[in-house]
Amino acid sequence: MPVKCDNRGNGILESVKKHIYIYSPSSAVRDKASFKRGIKRLEALDYEVEVDEAALAAHQRFAGDDETRLAAIHRAAASGADVALTTRGGYGLTRLLPGINYKAIAKAISKGTQFVGLSDFTAFQMALLAKTGALTWAGPALGEDFGAEAGADDIMQACFDDLVTGQGEGSGWQLPRHAPDSIANGAETNGGRKHGEYTIKDAMLWGGNLAMLTSLVGTPYLPAVKGGILFIEDVGEHPYRVERMLAQLLQAGILAQQKAIIFGQFSNYQLVPHDKGYKLASVVAWLQSQVKARVLTGLPFGHVATKVLLPVGQHVTLAVEGRDAFLLWGHQH
Amino acid sequence: MPVKCDNRGNGILESVKKHIYIYSPSSAVRDKASFKRGIKRLEALDYEVEVDEAALAAHQRFAGDDETRLAAIHRAAASGADVALTTRGGYGLTRLLPGINYKAIAKAISKGTQFVGLSDFTAFQMALLAKTGALTWAGPALGEDFGAEAGADDIMQACFDDLVTGQGEGSGWQLPRHAPDSIANGAETNGGRKHGEYTIKDAMLWGGNLAMLTSLVGTPYLPAVKGGILFIEDVGEHPYRVERMLAQLLQAGILAQQKAIIFGQFSNYQLVPHDKGYKLASVVAWLQSQVKARVLTGLPFGHVATKVLLPVGQHVTLAVEGRDAFLLWGHQH
């Protein structure tokens, strides 16, 4: 497999059960079967699972009205759990950003609660990072990942175990055979440079869902990260929309301040006849022509089953050796 | 009809033919039939139509590569035409923003060339307004409007005539029977206020496509308009995405600086069972709860046949008398 998470499974051998708190800050849970499967799966992994009282609340498309979801977030922070895990993404955190008690979240994190999620959750992660600098994890959600009908993905699960046990030291993946702009230029180069070997040390890893990131530009909820490593993913966004979002980050001066930009998985979009050869690789090539930063692709993170967990707001090392890429952050605990 | 444009048709009585320059700054023209019908329609209205040499160029999904489209924009500015009209929107101007000679466009406008368009064209209009303060027009495109298979819309055409002849003094429309938040609250009020009668004088009118507006937040291409009247429209965007975009404008502090926010037409989106009663009216009501500005709806502008022309960057008067709303700007020439 192109991905590795170290020390898989060590967590379940520990004597005290790890405590997972499940809550719903975004869209209403409609798929109750996945929700239940997810909880059973976590319990089978010998985690103690606590479900927030409003985890299945519903108001319009939201998991309860704004007040309900804010209260759920703050209960997750007060839970003392090892991990606060969202049921799902969707939409809803944007509206809550002005009402979140970021200091309380940061305090919970400093006491050992790890906040994990993706997609809509990116808004929470960015706002928290901007307001407090606290570290969260880009990673799975309960329903779609642990509750997947086909079973939880092994790599996702191993990476999650690593997080819970504090054993994780990084993640590796294999870069696509053709470097980003080689697709356009026909050469095995990366912005005029060979993939070759390079290391970027002590750079802040940040990012997540691209649509959520761009929706925060110009607001107080996007952290000003300099010299960082930005990772991005999205679902159901046509490449021209991905390009438009990247253009916003570019024209806002954000990309010029990054040392590397890593494409995760962009899934579930439809190319159309009008594209006439324009595709995601065209966007990657265009981006590489616009920035000095290293542009990498293939990171196993996004709206796909096989995803690693990534520490958002952590200083990491990016190491590339030929087609092997590694994000390394050492022990967290 | 709820819309009025004054002095319709006076333009075609003038002795010297007005000169329309057609060019393609955004997506490639695929619908050649609409393109041809549009030109014939303008010629039948006794306009002199000049077609840019690259109007039908194509590169991937774009109307030619970036250099080709930039050159087309600058030829439109140098054309000396009365109106520079885009063939269509789509996507493509975002990439060009750093390369446009805004001073040359502003100079052309000062000499009498009116730039007209919508959708992707909003990026051009905003950037030009931000860089030079020059006035452009939110209005039709060649293909979808003048080239519509069902024939050009009468009101659109009357408003266009008004622009070309310099006779336009404003546009009026009828507000929906239920004011925005009455839909949610069951009362015929508007943010706690009756529609009643009010006038907002000497406020800058600006706006256009909401997705394009939000894609410029944080970049040098969004004008900083204070005390303005912001109008918005979009196509194919679910209400939750409309809300997320408005939340960005809100959280970036832009909406707090406006005196009024006017919803044009939001078309061609699909509600889903998951919405459970969440709809565009929910977004309007939410917005009204977040801002002090007047929030109006029903403006006949957007991705619909019946559209008025609106002077972007012009100081206007908004007058509301019961259900009648008027945007007034006096003579332009």
Characterization of the model:
- Two copies of one chain form a homodimer.
- By secondary structure, chain A is of the alpha/beta class.
- The first copy, chain A, folds into two domains: 9-167, Rossmann fold; 169-332, Glucose Oxidase, domain 1.
- Chain A is 31% helix and 24% strand.
- Chain A contains eleven helices and 15 strands.
- The first copy, chain A, has helices at 32-44, 66-78, 93-96, 102-110, 121-132, 142-146, 154-165, 182-185, 210-215, 239-251, 280-290, and strands at residues 19-23, 48-51, 83-86, 114-117, 136-138, 170-174, 189-190, 193-194, 197-209, 228-235, 258-267, 294-296, 310-312, 314-321, 324-328.
- In chain A, strand 4, helix 5 and strand 5 form a beta-alpha-beta unit.
- In chain A, helix 4 (102-110) packs across helix 5 and helix 10 (239-251) runs parallel beside helix 11.
- The longest helix of chain A has 13 residues, at 32-44.
- Chain A is globular.
- Chains A and B meet through helix 10 of A and helix 10 of B.
